[in-house]
Amino acid sequence: MTKYLKQSCFVISIIGLLACSKVTNEPVNKTGSIDKPHDTRLATVETNVEAMLAQLTLEEKVSLVHASGKFHINAIERVGIPEMWLSDGPHGVRHQINRHDWASAGWTDDHATYLPHLTSVAASWDKEMAILHGKVLGAEARDRKKDFILGPGVNLARLPLYGRNFEYMGEDPILAAKLVVPQIKAIQENDVAATIKHYALNTQELNRTGVNAKPDERTLREVYLPAFEAAVKEANVLGMMGAYNEYYGTNANQSKHLVMDILKGEWGFKGVLLTDWNVDINTHDAAMHGLDLEMGTDVPTYDEYFLAQPLLKEIKAGNIPESVLDDKVRRILRVQYSIGMYDDNRLPGQRNTKSHQFAARKIAAEGVVLLKNEVVGEKNVLPLDEKTIKNILVLGPNADKKHGTGGGSSEVKSLYEITPLAGLKEQLGEDVNITVMRARSSVLAPIASDYVASRHWTGTPAWNISYFKDKARKELASESWIVDSKFTSLNDNGVDHITMKAQIKPLQAGVHTLNVSAVGDFTLSVDGDVVVNHTSVDSAILSHDIELDADKEYAFEIKYDGNTSFTLGWDAPGNLFTDEAEYLAAAKAADAVIYFGGLSHGDDRESIDRPDMKLPNSQDEIISKLLAANEKTVVFLVAGSAVEMPWAEQANAIVWGWYGGMEAGHAFADVLFGEVNPSGKMPITLPEKLEHTAPIALNDYNAEESLYTEGVFIGYRWFEQQNIKPTFAFGHGLSYTNFALSDIQVSSKTISNEQSVQVTAQVTNTGKLAGAEVVQLYLHDRAASVERPIKELKGFDKVFLQPGETKQVSMTLTKRDLSFWDTNSNDWLAEPGEFEVQLGTSSDKIILKETFTYQNQ
């Protein structure tokens, strides 16, 4: 077993990068000296931009501000401007698609390293992991000849149901800001433009292209903009993708306030603002209010894009100044020259190297969060001991599930993906017996995704669902996708008229027993023939046998008229699932049970929010029964968003692993068996119930508008304000060793004007194993003229320590850290008074406190 992950000092060769505990930001050449290919190039960027701009015709300039393919921008061969290519890729460079449609180009050499998702980077609370992630992503984008990589993403996890939480960096603006800056720098050092997204307020997928975000200015500035601001001011990000949603009645891409006043005005952004695909813009507002690049619009030809022929006509008519267009073209050219598109010495990149795969494993392991680890018998449940455990029972939907090709635009085509089960098998070899089962709930379960051949465009098995206004189904109201053959009505005032369709592919030939529980009118047709026609006022199960062939796809169509629910399940030949009595008997006999549960990209995915915060397919019931059967059951959750855990108090060991990339299974095994001492911390709050979260409690989640009624009280700030105890708090995470914090000091008890204060403390590893602790700095304003959170994260430091070792941590607070956005002066305001510094290991575990006074003289 490779032991490299046990080292806090590791050597990894990425683009010639040498890292030992601290990862350098600069590439190293073969002689070992620092090589800066950018310096000479960057010194002449503005001169080169102006010289090139002067050569272009009006028509040529227009051709540079809109796409000429799904992921590329027009070349102008007359003056030597090359074609510019973009690629999706928060977690790896996306496979190649056709130039003019969304189908795969069919390449056989477009694999990429599938990195852990950004929630895992956020859970590491480690800037080195952000750098490592960025180095790999940037190098692989360059190897694929990409110029823009469309990531990282920093939209905040305001709502646990948000379908894209898994792509982002948690719920706190400062955590996201401090991690995205080093990642952007690392990407761009590889001569590729990073594209931070989605600017701004993209916090739900429900009607994502139409929902109107209307936060007050203080909430906007303090919560939803800091990560973007840091990306511009500190990382010099070259690309920024606008959000789908509206902001006060107009699309975010063409909001004068968001773009001209703040992004390009106050912050001085010099890069390119580009759209996501198919956003609701118009030519005049987009042009005049700062959109630079239109990437995808639902029109027949590229010439019909809003920033194509319509823009040209407006300029020729004198309605839009050509200088507006010139600014956009300057930005495009500025990126091209900055990343070396005209430079023979542009970095070539690397892809699918061993070092990149090791990096994926390292990042995944550092992001694993140990939520709970109780003593059973004489020791803690985790880490598991290979010497004493001879029989392990493995269950759960994520035990052998791969996630790389799902989720939407973040899908990655990787050379391989190690599942948790594969990682366990490789870790344990032949010495330990691993029994694998898929547990069946006592509740009727929908047809498993294994049998569903139809796919949502994000790549996951799904059913199409159509909502009609009438029972005759002549007037379509809306259309979407649903994970499986289970439907629960949200209609309080009438009857739903829905039709659901999917292609179903049996795994074995023979009799399939269809099981239906429906309240209302339910009809099932298979290949056009009605096989079940059922009306019921209760949920009693109706069964019907049907003969089906193996590996043949059947068109299933459900029509339902009712206002309650239905489930369509079946008993299929060679049943995939184990009955309750059998799996519980196996659990009682096992030395340890590992349940790999959680979500998948059928739940966490672009374009659709989750319907609730529960674990799907009756996982809660199965987990509760396993916990009762064997007290050494480890619940290992893989998910990108919060889930309810009604069994949390009953469990003795809970681990959270995120979508861990291609090396997830190895990383998870490393943690479970102690090869790696877990050091991750939750970047999100794990509520006990969905209704405890602010948007739901305040009835501010709908398809029309989001008022952000909770204001600056996002995540843990809301829970503390409302005195609601979550299942696990923001920043929580345990270790296999113990740490002590002591000796907090502030550099000055009184500061004024622009002075900063340095906060120091001692951290000691008091346990028997090497490990890392994340010291979190929160700030409390003891008396303010506005309502402020009880505490706000302002800094953190991850410290690696040997047993008995002590190190000092040091973090700096600036005037900005003390400030709130003052709506009277329309600026940041630090009020005179006393501030309390709180150091702890989670938001609910503050260990040290100290105060200082700020004077505004």
From TrEMBL:
One of its GO terms (molecular function) is hydrolase activity. Keywords: Hydrolase. Residues 458-588 form the PA14 domain. Gene3D superfamilies: 2.60.120.380, Glycoside hydrolase family 3 C-terminal domain, Glycoside hydrolase, family 3, N-terminal domain, Immunoglobulins. It holds the Pfam family PA14. Belongs to the glycosyl hydrolase 3 family. This is Glycoside hydrolase family 3 C-terminal domain-containing protein.
